[in-house]
Amino acid sequence: HKHDVTSVAEQGLVGKDDATIAARVRDEARCLITLDLDFSNLRAYPPSDYHGIIVIRSKKQDKATVLALVKKFAPLLDRESVIGKLWIVEEDRIRIRGDKE
Q1: Is the pLDDT of residue 2 over 70?
Q2: pLDDT at residue 3, rounded to an integer
Q3: Mean per-residue pLDDT for 77-100?
Q4: How far is 78 from 101, CA to CA, in rounded Å?
Q5: What pLDDT does 1 receive?
Q6: What CA–CA distance (Å, rounded) separates 31 from 54?
Q7: What is the mean pLDDT of residues 82-99?
Q8: Dist CA 6 CA 42 (whole Å)
Q9: DSSP assignment of 52-80, as one string?
Q10: Contact yes or no for 39/45 (Cβ under 8 A)
Q11: 3-24, pLDDT tens digit by residue?
């Protein structure tokens, strides 16, 4: 499957605060994939308000590690909807949560 992706840099959002980034992805009906753990806060960013939030939690944040984790969750996108959900991707597991969980 093809996915329409863009980056914070391409959107001119480098250095912007989390609320600004969250508003943009919500307005554009995009799933946010991030290393920023702040987005795993269900109260601040209720998953039902978004087309998906995927937080990558990793001790190492080098390109190879992050890409390996993306390859881990990418196949799930074909089987499991991310809309209205928070996915927390770790080396050993993927947790999928909604607002009330």
Answers
A1: no
A2: 72
A3: 92
A4: 23
A5: 57
A6: 7
A7: 94
A8: 24
A9: -EEEE--S--SHHHHHHHHHHHGGGGGTS
A10: yes
A11: 778 899 999 999 999 999 999 9
Longest dimension (CA), the chain: 34
Name the β-bridge partners of 54: 33, 87
Return the SS3 of 19: helix
Per-residue tokens: 26: 């919500």
Six token digits for residue 10: 């391409």
Please state, rounded to an integer, the average pLDDT across all residues of the chain: 92
Tell how strand 94-97 and strand 53-56 pair up: unpaired
The two beta strands, 86-89 and 94-97, are: antiparallel
Q: Which residues contact 3 (CB under 8 A, 6 or more apart)?
A: 77
How far is the C-alpha of 81 from the C-alpha of 66, rounded, in Å? 21
Q: How far is CA 75 from the centre of its chain?
A: 15
